[in-house]
Amino acid sequence: MFEVAVIEDPAAAEVSLDPVRARLLAELAEPASATMLAAKVGLARQKVNYHLKALEQHGLVELVEERRKGNVTERVMRATAASYVISPTALAAVAPDPDRSPDQLSARWLLAVASQLVRDVGALITGAAKAKKRVATFAIDGRVRFATAADRAAFAEELASAVTTLVGKYHDDAAPGGRDHRVIVAVHPSITHDMTQTETKEF
Fold first, then answer.
1. Residues 143, 155: contact at Cβ < 8 Å?
2. CB distance 60 to 27 below 8 Å
3. What angle do CA 180, 112, 197 make, to 5 degrees?
4. Block means of pLDDT (10 residues each) for the chain, length 203 residues?
5. Which conformational region is residue 97 in: left (phi greater than 0), alpha (psi within -120 to 50 degrees), or beta?
6. Cβ atoms within 10 Å of 17's Cβ, excluding its own
7. In this structure, what CATH number is given to the domain that contains residue 16?
8. What's the number of domains the chain is made of?
9. Does any domain span residue 53?
10. How many CA atoms lie within 13 A of 80 on its CB side?
11. pTM of the predicted structure, to 2 decimals
12. CA angle at residue 116 from 111 to 61, to 5 degrees?
């Protein structure tokens, strides 16, 4: 089981967003049969089997083992990942395009860039899984509290300068066998733990 899996197929995304099937995916973090799941979610075993077939068809759950009980063969299933991310690729026709209106100070542009990040890293993960290789990535996730809007602006300016300097130092267009990498740096207000409020100060 993967820690995170990317859903790129529109049909698989639709299947995963069904409330009942999403609940079954959550329950299947640990292997279980339709009978076991039926008791947990309060549905008939036949109904659970119906949903499991749809999830299995789209690669969201997998068979772990088959157990023979009398005249019945019980299939024990497990989710293919502990959690899932739906790639913007699933909505290709209306996926955000950061190049359409680039604006470093726009939250919507930041969202478009983040969507592209999910799409690109998702594609890399999918390709690497098929090739049985790892993807070379790096990320920093931190928190900073600014006293004033001026401090935030100064931080952004220094950060941009530092990144520009590093890119200039290491970028080599002429490197034989070199490979391009994308660098994304973002700063946004923090969200509270209950996800119901965001910082509302002007700066």
1. no
2. no
3. 130
4. 90 95 96 94 94 96 89 91 93 88 88 93 89 90 95 95 96 92 92 57 55
5. beta
6. 11
7. 1.10.10.10
8. 1
9. yes
10. 17
11. 0.78
12. 105
Residue 68 lies in a domain: yes
Reported as type and span, the H/E element at residue 130 is helix 107-131
Q: How confident is the model at residue 129, as a pLDDT?
A: 84
CA atoms within 13 A on the CB side of 139: 6
Residue 15 CA, chain-centre distance (Å), reads 16
| Tokens matching residue 69 | 């009980």
131 located within any domain: no
For residue 102, what pLDDT is reported? 87
Within a 13 Å sphere around the CA of 102, how many CA atoms are in the beta-carbon half?
1
Q: What is residue 68's predicted lDDT score, i.e. its pLDDT?
A: 84
Domain housing 47: 2-84
**Going by C-beta distance under 8 Å and a sequence separation of 6 or more, which residues neighbour residue 60?**
7, 12, 15, 16, 21, 25, 79, 80, 84
pLDDT at 67: 86
Tokens of 158: 């220094």
Question: H or E stretch including 123?
Answer: helix 107-131
